[in-house]
């Protein structure tokens, strides 16, 4: 395998480069294309988790309100605890996946001699993980507010 085709193939195998991206595009732009693909993937993962947290929170809050209206406060608390646990776990898993992808991508960029792009990817990682964490906190706060504490 030539040097020209090795990197895109390795990145596709590692799941860092979207297969829809032509190998020539990755070669033509070098590290820029890789960094852009990595940053886009992190944003997609974060956006997906944020939307899922919002949807799960909406469902939980609706269920909690129905239970409270029926006078089942203890059951509403159990539902709230289960919802919070699910959101916490899913958010932590997404943050871990974003970090793992970012560190793999940054390592490849450093090997390519692009430390500045590696720093850019790691900065984007911190921002996306922060967005996921903010979404988690907001979801937990809404669920706790719905149950009354």
Q: How many domains make up the coordinates?
A: 1
Q: Please write the string of helix (H) and strand (E) elements.
A: HHHHH
Indicate the mean pLDDT: 87
- What is the CATH first-level class name? Mainly Alpha
Helix proportion range: over 70%
Anisotropy-based shape: rod-shaped
Tell me the CATH topology.
Topoisomerase I, Chain A, domain 4
Alpha carbon gyration radius:
20 Å
Proportion of strand residues: under 5%
What structural class do helix, strand and pairing data support? mainly alpha
From the coordinates shown, what is the CATH architecture? Orthogonal Bundle
Identify low-pLDDT runs.
Answer: 1-7, 18-26
Task: Explain how this protein is built.
The protein is an all-alpha fold. The protein has one domain (24-147): Topoisomerase I, Chain A, domain 4 (Orthogonal Bundle). It contains five helices and no strands. Helix 2 (23-29) crosses helix 3. It is rod-shaped, with a radius of gyration of 20 Å. Mean pLDDT is 87; it is low at 1-7 and 18-26.
Can you give keywords for this protein?
disordered N terminus; 87% helix; 5 helices; rod-shaped; 0% strand; 149 residues; Topoisomerase I, Chain A, domain 4; mainly alpha
Brief write-up:
With 149 residues, this protein is mainly α.
Question: Secondary structure elements and their pairing?
Answer:
Layout: H1 3-14, H2 23-29, H3 31-69, H4 73-111, H5 115-147
Helix pairs in contact: 2-3, 3-4, 3-5, 4-5
């Amino acid at each position: 395998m030539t040097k020209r085709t090795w990197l895109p193939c390795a990145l596709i195998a590692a799941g860092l480069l979207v297969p829809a991206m032509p190998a020539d595009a990755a070669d033509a732009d070098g590290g820029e294309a890789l960094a852009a693909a990595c940053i886009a993937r992190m944003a997609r993962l974060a956006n997906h988790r944020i939307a899922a947290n919002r949807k799960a929170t909406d469902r939980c809050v609706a269920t909690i309100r129905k239970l409270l209206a029926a006078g089942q406060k203890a059951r509403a608390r159990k539902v709230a605890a289960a919802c919070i646990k699910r959101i916490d776990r899913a958010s932590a898993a997404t943050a871990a996946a974003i970090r793992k992808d970012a560190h793999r991508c940054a390592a490849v960029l450093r090997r390519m001699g692009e430390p500045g792009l590696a720093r850019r990817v790691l900065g984007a990682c911190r921002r996306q993980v922060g967005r996921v964490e903010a979404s988690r906190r907001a979801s937990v706060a809404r669920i706790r507010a719905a149950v009354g504490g």
